């Protein structure tokens, strides 16, 4: 992977490909400024906001009339997982213009801590969904249907966070971009 | 018995740990959780147990970097590397050719003009400055500039967006927009950095630029800064341009829409010839590209009233999306501008780095540009005279010389004279040989009191490195001016021609 400079090579039948290493120009653009898009995960209060949001979601779902505990926990779980998937794994690049699009090919999870693995922020961000899942299965009283739904939601955010899947892309409906 | 003892020890150990465990705060909750979660469902419990184990493993794993070729260095190694490092000199050692050139470099004393005094006391005919209309020697302009200096001071001391904009800047913007017939115009403090700033303001990483191979250094730098994908087409070859545009359009058909630009020059700095604007406009409309046209050398020169290439080839300036020009050359002021639609101009006020981050144009230059622009509009005879002077020089050089020919168009007051290909091939001249010959011609002309120069170009650099790098052919640069009469121009032309012949026929 380190010496592969030939771009996103992929056999036509394969749907998985890996982002190639950055070009020299991209590296220099990336290091021109600190990455404001991913830096905040190490900022003060960035960890607290996760439990706060989860509790907020739970309260929000609880006040809906006729809501049972099972559904409320499952909805909280799914909403958090969907939000975190969208934010960390779906959206690529940086929403602000400060480094000429040098991160356009990377999602936020890959931008955090410059792509280092097992950093405190990444450990925390992986723990939150697991703990939330264990809590929701506990409070859905281990109903198999809820368990399955919650587990699938959990997998959607845990699998892309694995170090083995760093910079891996699944191109089901699209070709890998050239250049 | 050993086994009995071990068993007893084990039971004892289990009991002790169990009581210790029960004493731990929260152990009751944990036990209750484990008990209630089992629920006669081993598969699900196994999944949960696996998750917990995975989480613990993830928590305990050590941090590592995924950057390729990442090497962790110790403090001593870093110190060693720092000690070993020898910086390259900021300026490389001069070559013998550069040394010789530096020694013979003429220095002008006093004001520059059509006739300039050198430090060695001689007065020479200056055909090496862009003083086409001889505004340099205009006393009214000097007076006006001094007045402006007294009122406004030397510089505006701030970028345009930060207290740097003065009424004179807004006036020159309005003047140029009205002159060209575009809806808006924005001025920059430096002509060179205008185009290198306009290109990255619009074209970003992932966008596509199709550019002429012979574009000047400033454009190349702009393209490089923009980080866009660039495709080159052969110099002024409209068929090749069409081929490239068709190819890009085909490749991009299924991809997300990106911005696409064609970049070319009005009068080419490196070659001196003219772009075929009507054809380029036709192609850009057909393939849905935007056009960035650098008129740095053609604005104030081409056309019946100096509006540039658009006027010369009867194209509406509003058809050109971004029209860049210079106020430093023919207008005898300083700075550059970009004319276009309101959207194009307003976008640059926040996104063009040279506009946002460098100090505004000094008021003197803005006023001078306004004045000279007015003079161009009110004195159409200037263009007639300049054309005549160009023709006088042209007839002395291009058709009569056996050795050199002029690559510039007959309308261009900057005549670029290059060695004929047959001369180069028959004598097997390298680029360096040609430069040396041209320098000898320049020296010979100077000995005859005519100051001309070589076209000195900067290396194209890595921006074009992906394809083949364009190397401009070595050329003599003769700049025509209105400050000299037809007779004087002809005389200088004869001197230059004889110098060329003398140098190229001398015995080695």
Automatic annotation (TrEMBL), chain A:
The chain crosses the membrane at residues 124-140. Keywords: Membrane, Transmembrane, Transmembrane helix. InterPro entries: ORMDL. It is found in: Membrane. One of its GO terms (cellular component) is endoplasmic reticulum membrane. The keyword Transmembrane helix applies. It is a multi-pass membrane protein. This is Uncharacterized protein.
Automatic annotation (TrEMBL), chain B:
InterPro entries: Aminotransferase_I/II_large, AON_synthase_class-II, PyrdxlP-dep_Trfase, PyrdxlP-dep_Trfase_major, PyrdxlP-dep_Trfase_small. Keywords: Acyltransferase, Lipid metabolism, Pyridoxal phosphate, Sphingolipid metabolism, Transferase. Pathway: Sphingolipid metabolism; Lipid metabolism; sphingolipid metabolism. It is an enzyme of class 2 (transferase). Its EC number is 2.3.1.50. It comes from the Eukaryota. One of its GO terms (biological process) is sphingosine biosynthetic process. Pfam families: Aminotran_1_2 (PF00155). GO terms for molecular function: pyridoxal phosphate binding; serine C-palmitoyltransferase activity. Residues 123-460 form the Aminotransferase class I/classII large domain. One of its GO terms (cellular component) is endoplasmic reticulum. Its cofactor is pyridoxal 5'-phosphate. Belongs to the class-II pyridoxal-phosphate-dependent aminotransferase family. This is serine C-palmitoyltransferase. It comes from Capronia epimyces CBS 606.96.
């Amino acid at each position: 992977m380190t010496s592969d400079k030939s771009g996103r090579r992929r056999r036509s039948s394969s749907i998985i490909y890996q982002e190639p290493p950055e070009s020299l120009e991209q590296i220099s653009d990336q290091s021109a400024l600190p990455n404001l898009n991913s830096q905040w995960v190490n900022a003060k209060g960035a960890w607290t906001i996760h439990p706060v949001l989860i509790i907020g979601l739970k309260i929000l779902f609880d006040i809906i009339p006729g809501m049972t505990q099972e559904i409320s926990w499952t909805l909280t779980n799914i909403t958090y997982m969907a939000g975190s998937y969208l934010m960390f794994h779906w959206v690529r690049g940086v929403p602000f213009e400060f480094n000429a699009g040098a991160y356009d090919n990377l999602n936020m999870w890959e931008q955090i801590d410059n792509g280092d693995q097992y950093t405190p922020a990444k450990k925390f961000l992986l723990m939150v969904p697991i703990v939330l899942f264990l809590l929701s299965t506990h409070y859905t009283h281990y109903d198999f249907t809820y368990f399955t739904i919650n587990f699938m939601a959990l997998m959607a955010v845990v699998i892309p966070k694995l170090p083995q899947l760093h910079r891996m892309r699944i191109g089901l409906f699209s070709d890998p971009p050239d250049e | 018995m050993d086994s009995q003892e071990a068993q007893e020890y084990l039971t004892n150990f289990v009991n002790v740990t169990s009581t210790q465990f029960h004493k731990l705060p929260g152990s009751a909750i944990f036990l209750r959780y484990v008990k209630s979660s089992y629920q006669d469902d081993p598969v699900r419990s196994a999944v949960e147990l696996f998750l917990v184990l995975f989480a613990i493993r993830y928590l305990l794993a050590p941090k590592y970097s995924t950057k390729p070729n990442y090497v962790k260095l110790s403090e001593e190694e870093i110190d060693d590397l720092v000690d070993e490092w020898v910086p390259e000199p900021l300026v490389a050692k001069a070559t013998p050719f550069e040394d010789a050139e530096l020694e013979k470099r003429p220095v002008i004393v006093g004001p520059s003009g059509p006739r300039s005094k050198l430090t060695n006391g001689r007065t020479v005919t200056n055909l090496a400055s862009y003083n086409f209309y001889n505004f340099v020697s205009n006393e009214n302009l000097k007076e006006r500039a001094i007045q402006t200096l007294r009122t406004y001071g030397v510089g505006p001391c701030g970028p345009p967006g930060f207290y740097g904009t003065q009424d004179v800047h807004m006036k020159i913007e309005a003047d140029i927009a009205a002159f060209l017939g575009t809806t808006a115009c924005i001025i920059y403090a430096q002509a060179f950095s205008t185009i290198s700033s306009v290109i990255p303001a619009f074209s970003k990483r992932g966008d596509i630029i199709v550019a002429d191979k012979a574009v000047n250094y400033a454009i190349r730098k702009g393209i490089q800064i923009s980080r866009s994908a660039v495709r080159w087409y052969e110099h002024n070859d409209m068929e090749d341009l069409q081929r490239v545009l068709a190819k890009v359009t085909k490749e991009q058909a299924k991809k997300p829409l990106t911005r696409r630009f064609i970049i070319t020059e009005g009068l080419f700095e490196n070659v001196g010839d003219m772009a075929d604007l009507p054809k380029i406009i036709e192609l850009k409309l057909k393939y849905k590209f935007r056009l960035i046209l650098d008129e740095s050398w053609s604005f104030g020169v081409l056309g019946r009233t100096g509006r540039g290439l658009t006027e010369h080839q009867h194209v509406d300036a509003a058809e050109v999306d971004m029209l860049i020009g210079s106020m430093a050359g023919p207008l005898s002021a300083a700075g550059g501008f970009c004319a276009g639609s309101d959207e194009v101009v307003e976008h640059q006020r926040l996104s063009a780095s040279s506009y946002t981050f460098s100090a505004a144009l000094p008021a003197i230059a803005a006023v001078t540009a306004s004045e000279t622009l007015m003079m161009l509009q009110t004195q159409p005879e200037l263009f007639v005279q300049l054309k005549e002077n160009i023709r006088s020089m042209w007839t002395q050089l291009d058709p009569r010389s056996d050795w050199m020919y002029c690559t510039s168009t007959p309308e261009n007051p900057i005549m670029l004279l290059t060695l004929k290909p047959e001369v180069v091939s028959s004598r097997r001249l390298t680029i360096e040989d040609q430069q040396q010959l041209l320098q000898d011609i320049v020296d010979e002309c100077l000995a005859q009191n005519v100051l001309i120069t070589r076209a000195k170009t900067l290396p194209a650099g890595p921006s074009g490195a992906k394809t083949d790098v364009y190397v401009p052919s070595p050329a003599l640069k003769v700049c025509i001016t209105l400050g000299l009469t037809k007779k004087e121009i002809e005389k200088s032309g004869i001197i230059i021609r004889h110098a060329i012949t003398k140098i190229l026929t001398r015995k080695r």
